[in-house]
Design a protein that fits this description.
By secondary structure, the chain is α/β, with parallel strands linked by helices. About 50% of the residues lie in helices and about 10% in strands. α2 packs across α3, α4 packs antiparallel against α5 and α10 packs antiparallel against α12. The protein is elongated and about 70 Å long.
Length: about 280
């Protein structure tokens, strides 16, 4: 039986997805069971997606595209699902993450906050909780961001892990996030990471002053074919760059940054010292 519950597509991305699914289904004269039989799900499941009682998945969306004839089109439900999944992320970042998971080498620079790949779950949760408090994102979006971050970290656990090189502005370890217990654990995690053979962490101390070439996050990926891409962010937008003419100067500046930053041994000493002061 057709579910006659009124749908509000303006209630959120999943509501819009569900309302559109019902609209496309009814335009073909199909009941929920009719669509379900074509995509390998139950009518109850289709009803749940339409009414937001169930979240759509990539597998479900691909099956719907096949049944409705939307595969590879601008109207693809898989494309709509991707917008839902990555809706809390800056433009360009999902594409960057896809490359990050296959990169041979990852180079990071960050100011003010520990980079995501090096964050503990508790630190990440504290960062996102603050965004919720500011009403910049919802609690659900905060949970999605933390979950997405854990997936990124897990993707780097491979038989041959990538080389991970990170330069942290000194503010990253001095800015208190989540309270003393969370921050102390995060600093210990950084120390533990330096013991891994494929990981290097350096601190760009305040003393380097104007010699620090970057003022914002910079990520560089060396891919398996040895090509290099860069990713940078503003407050509202991310930008992935593959053009060698603009990537090479960023690589050069990164090497210059490493030259003026503390060695890993001195970095560990600084982190140890600061950690003792907050635990």
């Amino acid at each position: 039986m057709v579910n006659l519950k009124d749908l509000n597509p303006d209630a959120g991305p999943e509501a819009a997805y569900g309302a559109r699914l019902r609209r496309e289904r009814e335009a073909r004269g199909w009941r929920q069971d009719d669509l379900a039989g074509r995509i390998g799900y139950t009518g109850r499941h289709v009803s749940g997606v339409e009414t937001c009682h169930k979240s759509p998945t990539r597998k479900f969306s691909i099956a719907v595209d096949v049944a409705l004839g939307f595969v590879g089109s601008a109207d693809s439900f898989e494309r709509e699902w991707r917008k839902i999944k990555h809706g809390v992320l800056l433009q360009g970042f999902p594409e960057y993450v896809a490359l990050e998971g296959r990169a041979a080498e990852i180079r990071l620079f960050e100011v003010g906050v520990i980079p995501g790949l090096l964050q503990t779950p508790e630190y990440a949760q504290a960062v996102e909780a603050a965004a919720v408090d500011r009403r910049a994102i919802t609690r659900q979006q905060a949970d999605e961001r933390v979950s997405f971050l854990m997936e990124r970290q897990a993707a780097l656990v491979r038989p041959v892990p990538p080389v991970l090189i990170t330069v942290l502005d000194e503010s990253c370890i001095r800015r208190p996030i989540g309270g003393p217990k969370v921050m102390a654990a995060q600093l210990q995690h950084l120390i533990d990471l330096t013991e891994q053979p494929d990981t290097t962490i350096q601190i760009a101390s305040y003393s380097i002053g104007e010699r620090r070439p970057f003022d914002r996050l910079v990520n560089l990926l060396t891919l398996q074919d040895r090509s290099v891409v860069s990713y940078v962010e503003s407050e509202t937008q991310g930008y992935l760059d593959r053009e060698i003419g603009s990537v090479v100067p960023v690589v050069r500046a990164y090497h210059q940054l490493q030259t003026v930053s503390l060695s890993q041994a001195n970095t560990v000493d600084m982190i140890h010292e600061h950690r003792k002061g907050i635990s």
